[in-house]
Amino acid sequence: MTLSVERIFHDKEFELNEPVSSKWLAAGASYTTVEKSVSTPGGSDIVRHDSATGEQTILVDASRLVPDGAESPLEIKDYSWSDDGQFMLISTNTVKFRRHESLGDYWLLQLNDWTLRQVGTDAEPSTLMYAKFSPDSRNIAYMFANNIYVESIDGKSVKAMTSDGNDLIVNGTGDWVNEEEFDLRDGFKWSPDSKRIGYWQFDTEGVGTFYMMKNTGDIYSQPIPLQYPKAGTTNSAVRVGVVEIESAQTTWIELDDDPRQNYVPQMSWADNSDQLVIQYVNRLQNRNRVILADASDGTIHDIFTDTDDAWLDVNEDLKWFDDGKYFTWLSERDGWRHLFAISRDGKDIRLLTPGEFDIISIQHIDTDGGWVYYIASPEDNATRYLFRSPLIGKAKMERLTPAGDAGFNRYKISPNSKWAFHTFASFAVPPTIDLISLPGHAKQRNIVENEKVAALVEATPRGETEFFRIDVGDGLELDGWMMKPPNFDPQQQYPMLIYVYGEPWNQTVIKDWKTEGYLWHLMLTQQGYIVASIDNRGTPAPRGRAWRKSVYRQIGIQAAADQAAAVKTLLNERPYLDPERVGSWGWSGGGQMTLNAMFRYPDVYSTGIAVAFVSDQRLYDTIYQERYMGLPDDNEEGYRLGSPITHADGLAGDLLIIHGTGDDNVHYQNTEQLVDKFIELNKSFDLMIYPDRSHSIKEKENTKRHLYNLMTDFLHENLPVESN
Questions:
Q1: Is residue 99 very low, low, confident or very high in pLDDT (cuts 50, 70, 90)?
Q2: Residue range 454-718 in CATH 3.40.50.1820
Q3: Superfamily of domain 21-160
Q4: What is the DSSP string of 74-142?
Q5: Which of 11, 45, 259, 357 has CA 20 to 30 A from 287's CA?
Q6: Looking at residues 98-115, what average pLDDT do you find?
Q7: Nearby residues of 231 by Cβ (< 8 Å), 6 or more positions away
Q8: Do 143 and 155 contact (CB within 8 A), yes or no?
Q9: Terminal alpha carbon distance of the chain
């Protein structure tokens, strides 16, 4: 069964089963899922599953979710339980806000008498955001029209906690760039005693406005304004406030320094209702101050500062333990990404996970049991496994994922640390999800099995996939993979297509399932191509701080050189690769890398496809670009040399550039400026634009099918399977 673009992107033969949307109950003794109702057409039930036995009970029948006057139940987009277990909050009728469906309607279900009512009923449909119960289950807070409101559980009282929100002042969520780069979306948090709310406020006045143009759907174009701070330009002013629920009065935290030259990527309550813990990061993102702030008067004092000569990643895993005496901190301060325990006064700093390995992500911190659970892969950069280490006592590292097939292991661990949803996938193996017990990792039952897709892949002609490490000289070894045609003959010569990303945000050489990417690459191998990918220095592989930070202030420069060196080495060592037929393709940062490859190493690459790329690094956003490059005024030469447009005169091969005009992340402006440069230089190239499509180029009917047919045809014409 040979593959085709139609089978992959149109017929949906390889569509995976949906992951189960689950919520832990009773600390993990049970969990709930949303399942199609068998008794109420068009509805969904909330079903409770006993973790140990698997026994199922319908907690909320879909028939309970039919509003007065409605003919059908609410569609459950998300749901949450109050801490006292008496109420359920349902998110429905959601619409897209920026990248996520954050806007919607909320309905409250009272479980003792099945009363159902809408929250914030005076608001227009689909205009509420981030509704959540207070810890005492007496109120619900939500964001509406850039202000925060608190509504009593009975709906009789609605009070505005902020009133200054408008088009420029944003309370309770991040601005565009903070959402994109720090994932700062839900921007307000109840205090443990339910008497206060801590929240972010962004003053976006002065941030540059970028206009996207919508030219479809009407006879006149429609400008779409977006406040987007490009590298080196004005940021929003950020501050943190604490509002008293009873008085609706805000106390502002007295953060020092210019609020437009610093970030607050993380804020939470400091294991009590009197203090906030704030991470305060300077604009260069190489200093992170951990601050305790008094919620009653706004005064602050620093307890710990992390620094780096390059950049720091935001610490998302701060957790208090030992009765609030210590908090956990993930840092590269010893050359590896390790977890530290830091005392509340910052004077005692203990390393919890010593050794020459990186923690890739924290999965769970069990303060009662005294364990931290984390993902690491000390022996194979391409895989991910679950480990744990003690919070107190002698440091040790215990692997919990059993030995077996190498691949990606993901976990959603219960609050009591006894259970987890375990997802396993590998390069050519679609994901399966099981419920397991911990720490023994015993399988209790299968949740999602993707047998159909696995069988289709198994029946598809495939050649060898090789994961390798290649020495490119001076002791530098790079990780890579290579997919070969089903009937590979080492005596023949094949065209090679390099799939690249290469920036600090992503790693491509991983043993994980990527449905569309894997299947399209597999299709190309069936047609006679060799497809390969290489991780250059600077990619987020678990190879230590020096590996990741070596690209500081030279994004696009060192990485492009590493990629070209790896390709040259492969060509020298593997005679079945045709040096006259080498191509590169990539998306976003990978599109930028493909352009740098084509322009700077025309002797290596004859063909390229660059999708949704940055052509000039000054055109990208402040937080991402300045994190890795510094400020444009302080690194003018780095920005110039790292930007593909600087080297456009080097284009000698065949190049296809692709962009969506509605891309709010990497603006279509990047393509227009590069095209303008090509015209100036009298360079030939191919161009495809997708009207109104975003950075993912997937909106509207038939888009993915058209895109991948376009790229496939371009390769057949310009990187032919048969040599001339």
A1: confident
A2: yes
A3: YVTN repeat-like/Quinoprotein amine dehydrogenase (2.130.10.10)
A4: PP-SEEEE-TTSSEEEEEEEEEEETTEEEEEEEEEEETTTTEEEESSTTSPTT-EEEEEE-TTSSEEEE
A5: 357
A6: 91
A7: 617, 618, 619, 620, 621, 622, 625, 626, 629, 631, 632, 639
A8: no
A9: 29
